[in-house]
Amino acid sequence: MAERLRNFRALYAQRRDGGYSVAFRDLTAADLPEKGDVLIRVAYSSLNYKDGLAITARGKIIREFPIVPGIDLAGEVVESRTPHFAPGDRVLAIGQGLGEIDWGGYSQMARVRADWVTKIPPPFTPETAMALGTAGFTAMLCVMGLEHQGVVPDSGPVFVTGAGGGVGSIAVLLLARLGYRVVAITGRPEVHDYLRGLGAAEFADRQAFETPGPALQPQRFAGGVDNVGGTILANLIAQTRYEGAVAACGMAHDTDLAVSIFPFILRNVALLGTSSSNTREPKRSHCWDRLARDTDLAMLRRIYRIEPLSRLPELAEDIMAGRIRGRVVVDVNA
Question: What CA–CA distance (Å, rounded) separates 56 from 48?
Fold first, then answer.
């Protein structure tokens, strides 16, 4: 009961002057929404592009106010109204509406709906679970999508756009570990050594894909993971081999996609829309099991750094400006 009464720190968003403001605030468990089934002492969260949009108010991410942003969290169960979880269980929750319609992870305590909560699979800890978080989960969904479409290491090279970011870095790590030849596409040459250390075999400058090109181009890639959208994605689809597949999961470059029908009807290319936000069971647990099996923890430690909750406003600006390499894990108690 003492756990429920003590004050805790959170990043709090509330409506103001036709928009909303975000600031740190001291709360108690009584302030948390009652609709959740599991009370969690949060240890770590993470910073995603969507979080950057929410904190800086540059995107219509938050749909309910007041709210605590943060689409990821991991920690320990304090109380549970369901038999599926017990005090002391180490758990995580990502997406599903956290930080958008329900209070999220930028808080030292959270009350979450039971069907949004997953037990952290070994060998992960709350810290390494958040090093993956939504980014790692999305990257693995993309990999599983490519596998389902028959894109295997022997099919040929695969690309990863936005390779220096969170999803991109983990996609490079996973694909290389699984035996694919990975072409990392980035506009930041300073991250080449970092990506080479994660397993990237080749590099391409994103500027080479930013000008609209022919509907069908030389067949270079067996498939890939795209984080950016727009003209870059359209050109890469045009360069995908017969019966290849592209998993699209981001919009860092552009939300519009002007692409010819020809790659789809002449080369049988598949475009796989990939969203992690509403992934349900049993696929959600299967994805985490794959991450537990296929993630090299030593390599994962190269991808992330830990930052305190207090730095979130400036880190949000950094991720919006493309200045974040890899992943940021947020220590909500630091």
Answer: 12
Which tokens belong to 88?
A: 């002391």
The domain of 83 spans: 2-120+303-331
3-state secondary structure of 332: coil
Give the closest residue to 299 by CA, choosing from 319, 326, 323: 326
Reduced to 3 states, what is the DSSP secondary structure of residue 145? helix
CA dihedral sign of residues 332, 74, 95, 27: negative
Are residue 168 and residue 192 in the same domain, yes or no?
yes
Rounded to whole angstroms, the Cα distance separating 140 from 138 reads 5
Q: Is the same domain home to 99 and 140?
A: no
Q: What is the CATH classification number for the domain harbouring 264?
A: 3.40.50.720
| Separation between Cα atoms, residue 198 and residue 185, nearest integer Å | 14
User: Taking the CB of residue 125, how many other CB atoms lie within 10 A of it?
Assistant: 15
CATH number at residue 322: 3.90.180.10
pLDDT per residue as tens digits for the range 192-236: 999 999 999 999 999 999 999 999 999 999 999 999 999 999 999
Residue 156 placed within a domain: yes
Mapped onto helix, strand or coil, the DSSP state of residue 68 is: coil
CA dihedral 282, 72, 136, 221 (to 10 degrees): 100
Is residue 228 within 8 Å of residue 206, measured between CB atoms?
A: yes
CA distances from 82 to 38, 40, 86, 117, 125 (A): 8, 13, 8, 11, 23
pLDDT in tens, 293-312: 999 999 999 999 999 999 99
141 pairs with which residues across the strands?
Answer: none
- Establish if 295 belongs to a structural domain: no
